[in-house]
From TrEMBL:
Domain of life: Eukaryota
Chief location: membrane
Name of the featured protein: Uncharacterized protein
InterPro entries according to UniProt: MAPEG-like_dom_sf (IPR023352), Membr-assoc_MAPEG (IPR001129)
Entry keyword Transmembrane helix: yes
Pfam families named among the record's database cross-references: MAPEG
Coiled-coil features, chain-numbered ranges: none
Intracellular or extracellular location(s): Membrane
GO cellular component: membrane
Keyword vocabulary terms for this entry: Membrane, Transmembrane, Transmembrane helix
């Protein structure tokens, strides 16, 4: 059985790019699930109160323009404000993950191009993925200023990994090509 040091010496860093993409998609799946639960509940209420018009909920959950659906969720009177806020936070976590994916992906590619030590690169990638999981958790569950500050701090800490990889790669390339 390979030891931890043997595993870390294996070039695994490229797997971190699709792993980050999946981590970025998780809030979107949670958002859709929460959104669908709300509209299932709304549909059940509307069926019990036949006199209520159903056209507004059909319009607000259009698959043709899903971003409009999520953006307008706070204006729906039938959605509890806490649930609407959670849906919007999940959308924010998803967007932030996709916004940060290119910088991380490019850093991993730079680290591999510069032939950075696999163990260091794997540890930096693992740290980044763990901090992004924590970021998603804090973003989805923030309810006050303190938890928002923790989320922001987690985001700043997560940036240390791609920056470390970029600077280490630049240093290695500067040594190889003076």
């Amino acid at each position: 059985m390979p030891s931890i040091s043997d595993t870390l010496a294996t070039p695994l860093s490229l797997y971190a790019i699709p792993a980050m993409w999946i981590i970025s998609l998780y809030p979107a799946f949670a958002r859709v699930s929460t959104f669908n639960e709300v509209f299932q509940l709304e549909r059940n209420v509307n069926e019990s109160l036949k006199w209520l018009p159903d056209d507004s909920s059909a319009e607000s959950r259009s698959v043709r323009q899903p971003r409009v659906s999520y953006a307008s969720v706070a204006q729906k009177k039938t959605i509890p404000p806490a649930v609407a806020a959670r849906i919007q936070r999940l959308e924010g976590a998803h967007a932030n993950g996709l916004e940060n994916l290119p910088i991380f992906g490019l850093a991993v590619l730079a680290g591999n191009f510069a032939q950075m030590d696999s163990a260091n690169l794997n540890i930096a990638c693992g740290f980044y993925l763990l901090t992004r999981l924590a970021y998603n958790h804090f973003y989805a569950r923030q309810y006050d200023e303190k938890s928002a500050d923790i989320r922001s701090l987690t985001w700043v800490i997560s940036l240390a990994s791609p920056l470390y990889i970029f600077f280490k790669s630049a240093s290695l390339l500067a040594q190889k090509y003076p």
